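Why do we care about 3D structure at all? Because function follows from shape, and shape follows, mostly, from sequence. That is the central idea of this module. The next example makes it concrete: a single protein chain, its amino acid sequence, and then its structure expressed as tokens.
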Amino acid sequence: MPQSFELEGTLKLIFDVQTFSSGFIKREFVVEVPDGKFPQMIKFECVKDKTAMLDKLSIGDNVKVSFDVRGSEYKERFYVNLNAWKLVKSGGGSGDDFSQEPPRGNSSLDDAFDREPNYSDDVPF
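And the structure:
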């Protein structure tokens, strides 16, 4: 059984649901985690019915993500995915748990790409 992890941060991006020809669906999102002068942007993915967990969340919400680390190999290349299976709104809010939401169809999402990134600090590399 894979080891589970938790991480808290601010929801920065929510991508649209991706549907593949096999019927497999996934949805990716990014959480910003404070880390000194340079915050970390961590990308997670939800698969199958867990994609609906993001429907009631908005960019800027503080969240706690429970996830597993998944790895695979294809043609001598290695891939790592952070597979989110529980998403809880945290911070001053009610602590809503969105992990048990039933699957729904696509919903309209805020267009996260309309926002300009903040490059106020120099990058260390």
